[in-house]
């Protein structure tokens, strides 16, 4: 099978929607566990001296709503210049 490279900027909104669908879903209690896993992985990769904090932001950190099913993280990094 041949791989075809396509420039992201040339995709239509419909093509982007098929590649990266947005699903509205009920609250999932596993999101907090997934956030903790991502936080641990990010800390292992960058170290505690680079990442100042890792926060779970966006709708998935709250319950009792409908959500876009993706985790949104905030990662302020230490500046080394």
SS class:
alpha+beta
N→C terminal distance: 46 Å
What is the number of helices?
Answer: 2
Element order: H for helix, E for strand:
HEHEEE
Low-confidence blocks of residues: none
Task: Give the helices and strands, then pairings.
Blueprint: H1 13-19, E1 24-26, H2 30-46, E2 55-57, E3 66-68, E4 72-74
Antiparallel strand pairs: 1-3, 2-4
Explain the overall architecture:
The mean pLDDT is 81. By secondary structure, the protein is of the alpha+beta class. Helix content is 30%, strand content 15%. It has 2 helices and 4 strands, in the order αβαβββ. The protein has a two-stranded antiparallel ribbon. The protein has a domain at 23-74.
Short descriptors:
single chain, 81 residues, 4 strands, alpha+beta, 15% strand, two-stranded antiparallel sheet, 2 helices
Concise synopsis of the structure shown:
The protein is of the alpha+beta class. It has helices at 13-19, 30-46, and strands at residues 24-26, 55-57, 66-68, 72-74.
């Amino acid at each position: 099978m041949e791989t075809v490279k396509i420039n992201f900027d040339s995709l239509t909104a419909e093509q982007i929607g098929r590649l990266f669908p947005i699903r509205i879903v009920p609250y999932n209690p596993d999101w907090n566990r997934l956030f903790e896993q991502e936080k641990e992985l990010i800390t292992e990769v960058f170290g505690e001296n680079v990442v100042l904090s890792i926060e779970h932001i966006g709708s998935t950190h709250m319950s009792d709503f409908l959500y876009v099913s993706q985790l949104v993280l905030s990662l302020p990094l230490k500046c080394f210049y």
